Amino acid sequence: MKLKLAYILLSAAAVVFCAGVPAYSVPFSRTHGAAVKTQNGDNSTLVSVIFGQPKEAEAQKASRVVAARPFKAPKSAVSIVPFRSEAMNKDVLATVILPNAYYRQPNRRFPVLYLLHGQDGSHTAWPSIRPDIQRLASMYSMIIVCPDAKNSWYWDSPVDASLRYETFISKELVGQVDAKYRTIADRKARAIAGLSMGGHGALWNAFRHQDIFGACGSTSGGVEIRQFPKNKNMIASLGEYEKNKGVWDSHTIMNQVELLKPNNLAIIIDCGTEDFLYKANESLHKKLLEHKIPHDYTTRPGKHNWPYWRNSLAYQLLFFDSFFRDPEFLWTRLGAPKKQK
User: Fold this and answer.
1) 3-state SS class at 247
2) Location of each CATH 3.40.50.1820 domain in the chain
3) Is 230 exposed, middle or buried (0-12, 13-18, 19+ CB in 10 A)?
4) What is the pLDDT of residue 339?
5) Helices (H), strands (E): how many in the chain?
6) Which of 92, 172, 234, 296 has its CB 3.0 to 4.6 Å from that of 268, i.e. a possible disulfide?
7) pLDDT at 17
8) Which residues contact 236 (CB under 8 A, 6 or more apart)?
9) In the chain, which stretches have pLDDT less than 50?
10) How many C-beta neighbours within 10 Å does residue 71 have?
């Protein structure tokens, strides 16, 4: 009787243990570019992964063991760091968010997402919109860098030599981040995204520097600057619209699509249907289709505000995580033909 009771208690404990293991304690394997799937709809594979039985899980043994333990990220996981811009002869601040695994796996390197703020924002915008941004970085095991770009629109101004944020973002910042942190210094492990002005900036830099970035995203992006000919920040950077239409034409994302080649840059774009930029994003989507550029385009109810961006970021991070794990799988998902080896 005692033996039977002990068996029942042991079985119950095992069930509770398995049910209580959080999903993130069994991380996806970047080494193999695929998820470890649960078999037969139960916890059999989950339990075997926890205890390191399958061969494909062996390489991640250390991260699995540590991931099952409570971990409090150090204060340095979210820090404000000055980066030097020789092009603008000044230091530019950026908020750098490191995932928990950065501290727990000192020999591991990580992909990087450059996350850009909108007009009148700063490097603190995204951490304010998503106070849990360090948790998100940890969930997807990526470094997130949020640079400050004032109201520059993230290009090199043709009329003001002190505004060279394209050079800073795509060359100076990327180089310094790769030198300072344990990054995977490759375009396949580098993405750039942003909201509103930052959405424009992300696409602008990615379209023009496809050797640097492998993926890009825009949420509520200001993708057609010519609909704002009176914008004082654009005027300061490009000159008055009526006198410089050619300059404005060459600095709108709509006229950068021709730089793209199919199956070369992973693109995700989304916009709320109540956003004043919705029609411009629809137009960009149609132009990408006309040029046969594979991309992920999503519209959902929402306005040009924090609640929309707070929700949007989760979807964009999932997209970039998919790209970082297996770019070829992402291309297949987007309907593009696989690249010939």
Assistant:
1) helix
2) 75-333
3) exposed
4) 57
5) 15, 8
6) 296
7) 34
8) 157, 160, 163
9) 1-68, 341
10) 13
